[in-house]
Design goal:
single chain, binds cytidine-5'-monophosphate, globular
Length: about 230
C-alpha cells in the first residue's frame, strides 16, 4: 500500500455512498473504489459458471481469478467481466442478492483485499463500501459513516432501479435493504460497523451537494487537500 491519502465512505445500503463517492472523487480528481461492485461481480460470475454462492472454495477461486475492468462510459462507469459488459446485470436486485451472499464468506473477502488496497495511489482514493475504514484502509486519514432513514434509502434505491427500467415496490425494496443490512451487520467477517474514528453523517434530509461540501470541508481541515475546490 502506498501512503496516498484515502477517504473512506462506509455505511448501509442506499445511504447515498455511491453518489457521494463518485462526486467527491470527481471534485478532488482522485481515484474511486466501488468495492460493492467487486462483490457484485463475484456473485454474478458465480451465476455464469453455475457455482453456488455458498460454495466457499469455488467462490474464492472466482474472486482470485476475477478478470474485471472498470471503464468510463457515457452513463458513468461501465463494469466489464472479461469481454462482457455486466454493468446492468450486477446492479439488478439479483446482483444485490449475490453480492450480499458472497460477501459473508471470509476467504472471499480476503481474496479481494489486496486488489482493493492496490488502488490507493496518488493523488488519492475515495473508497466506497462497508469495511473500508475498519478493515481495508484502517489508517485512512478521513472516514465517513453515511446513514439515512430506511425509507429514504428505499426510495433512493427505487429511483435508481427505475432509471434502469426495473420497477420494484417500496415495500419490497425496504425488505430487501433490511435483509441485506442485517446480513452485513451480523456476519462475522468484516461486519458493517462504523470505525471508531469515523465521522457520522445522516444524509436523509441533505442533498448530495451538501454532503459532498461537508466532506470536502473535513478533508481540507485534515490537510488532505490544499483548499476546497470551487
Ligand atoms: O455497495 P453495494 O450495495 O454495491 O454492495 C453490494 C453488497 O456487497 C452489500 O450489500 C454488501 O453485502 C457487500 N459489500 C461488502 N463490503 C463492501 C462492499 C459491499 O460486504 N466493502
Amino acid at each position: 500500500m502506498t501512503n496516498a491519502p484515502v477517504i473512506c465512505v462506509d455505511g448501509p445500503s442506499g445511504a447515498g455512498k455511491g453518489t457521494l463517492s463518485t462526486k467527491l472523487a470527481e471534485a478532488l480528481g482522485w481515484h474511486l473504489l466501488d468495492s460493492g461492485a467487486l462483490y457484485r461481480i463475484v456473485g454474478y460470475a458465480c451465476v455464469l459458471r453455475d457455482i453456488s454462492w455458498q460454495d466457499e472454495a469455488r467462490v474464492v477461486e472466482v474472486a482470485e481469478t476475477l478478470d474485471v475492468r472498470f471503464a468510463p462510459s457515457p452513463s458513468g462507469v461501465s463494469v466489464w467481466l472479461a469481454d462482457q459488459d455486466v454493468t446492468t446485470q450486477i446492479r439488478s436486485q439479483d446482483g444485490s442478492r449475490g453480492a450480499s451472499a458472497v460477501a459473508v464468506l471470509a476467504k472471499v473477502r480476503g481474496a479481494l483485499l489486496e486488489r482493493q488496497r492496490e488502488l490507493a495511489t496518488f493523488p488519492g482514493l475515495v473508497a466506497d463500501g462497508r469495511d473500508m475504514g475498519t478493515v481495508v484502509f484502517p489508517s485512512a486519514a478521513l472516514k465517513i459513516f453515511l446513514t439515512a432513514s430506511p425509507e429514504a434509502r428505499a426510495s433512493r434505491r427505487q429511483a435508481q432501479l427505475l432509471e434502469k427500467g426495473e420497477s420494484v415496490s417500496l415495500r419490497r425494496l425496504l425488505d430487501s435493504i433490511n435483509e441485506r443490512d442485517e446480513r452485513d451487520i451480523n456476519r462475522s467477517a468484516s461486519p458493517l460497523v462504523a470505525a471508531e474514528d469515523a465521522v457520522h453523517i445522516d444524509s436523509s434530509a441533505l442533498s448530495v451537494d451538501a454532503v459532498c461540501d461537508r466532506v470536502v470541508e473535513l478533508a481540507a481541515g485534515k490537510g488532505l487537500i490544499a483548499r476546497s475546490p470551487n
